[in-house]
Amino acid sequence: MTDLxxxxxxxxxxxxxxxxxxSRRKPDGKRPDGYVIAAIALSFIAGLAKEFNDLLxxxxxxxxxxxxxxxSGGIFAAxxxxxxxxxxxxxxxxx
Length: 95
Known about the structure:
Blueprint: H1 2-22, H2 33-56, H3 64-87
Helix pairs in contact: 1-2, 1-3, 2-3
């Protein structure tokens, strides 16, 4: 049970880090779609890499639940950031 929670949290941290570090909000207050897709894709790739690592070094069998929870954590974090951005007013532009 805790292993699945760790996967969910790890996917969320990866996705949130990509969005908060590398992307800036556009003037309309939204994040660029490419960064959102990249954040979710990187959480999936990280989960896939971890499962292949477990399989390669025989730590455990390939577990689809671990992969799904890592990806779900990434999706959840991205949606949470998008939701927060919807209700945060954009910064005023200098004129």
